[in-house]
Design goal:
The structure holds two protein chains of two kinds.
Chain A lengths: L3 E2 L4 E5 L4 E3 L2 E2 L7 E7 L6 E7 L7 E2 L2 E6 L4 E6 L8 E8 L8 E3 L3 E6 L1
Parallel strand pairs in A: 2-12
Antiparallel strand pairs in A: 1-4, 3-9, 5-6, 5-10, 7-8, 8-9, 10-11, 10-12
Chain B lengths: L4 E3 L2 E4 L5 E6 L6 E7 L6 E7 L2 E4 L8 E4 L6 E5 L8 E8 L14 E2 L3 E5 L1
Parallel strand pairs in B: 2-11
Antiparallel strand pairs in B: 1-3, 3-8, 4-5, 4-9, 5-6, 7-8, 9-10, 9-11
Classes of the chains: A mainly beta, B mainly beta.
């Protein structure tokens, strides 16, 4: 089974609108972390936001927020007031504990295009 | 701001040739990762180092790929011989997480700009 599932291969959004990128995950471990990364066409992966499985509140970082629904195993990224510079690939990733040897498992990504 | 450095940024090579990529992590980061990202997919871990030791190379095609981090600082990933299917982006990342800090450090990985490999 896929550990991270991103069901939206591509999305087109009007500038200044809010956008939600979907991510579901699969793990049996009670302790895990969820990450969102942005990858512009230049290729580098840019960290956006992190949510720990025990965090009581949804994570927020500026225009980014993570809608964490633990029972549904969902960790959707919400971008408010989208900008042209938000056009990029977005990857959801999960880290499961392994005593310091953690690795990230990535989804297949969503290509977001902001329309002026 | 400290960054992960990678070189070269782009590499074109013919199949059966040898190719090498270099990565210099953020100073002080104990953990270094090499990922391969095929076009249209998410990155997949090839190898993970804790200081100079390999802690996970289960997805590294060991018949042609090798990786080293001799002094626990910078690292080299080598492919010999390269095959057409090796065309991909190779990403290096580093993290301050170690066996001593894993339970208090959420383990953000900082990525370099990547090396885009084309095998012809």
């Amino acid at each position: 089974a896929q550990k991270i599932t991103q069901t939206q291969p591509g999305m087109f959004v009007q500038e200044k609108e809010a956008v939600t990128l979907d991510c579901t995950y699969d793990t049996s471990d009670p302790s895990y972390g969820l990450f969102w990364y942005k990858q512009p066409s230049s290729g580098e992966m840019i960290f956006l936001i992190y949510q720990g499985s025990y965090d009581q509140q949804n994570a927020t970082e500026g225009r980014y927020s993570l809608n964490f629904q633990k029972a549904r195993k969902s960790a959707n990224l919400v971008i408010s007031a989208s900008q042209l510079g938000d056009s990029a690939m977005y990857f959801c990733a999960m880290r499961e504990p392994n005593f310091g040897n953690e690795k990230l498992t990535f989804g297949t990504g969503t290509r977001l295009t902001i329309i002026p | 701001e400290a960054e992960v450095a990678q070189s070269p940024r782009y590499k074109i090579t013919e199949k059966s040739q040898a190719v090498a990529f270099w990565c210099d992590p953020i100073s002080g980061h104990a953990t270094l990762y090499w990922y391969r990202q095929i076009l249209g997919q998410g990155p997949e871990l090839l190898v993970q180092f804790q200081d100079e030791s390999v802690v996970d190379d289960s997805q590294l095609p060991k018949d042609r790929f090798s990786a080293e981090r001799l002094k626990g600082v910078d690292s080299t990933l080598k492919i010999q011989p390269a095959e057409l299917g090796d065309s991909a982006m190779y990403l290096c990342a580093s993290s301050s997480t170690s066996r001593d800090t894993w339970n208090v450090d959420f383990g953000e990985q900082y990525f370099g700009p990547g090396t885009r490999l084309t095998v012809t």
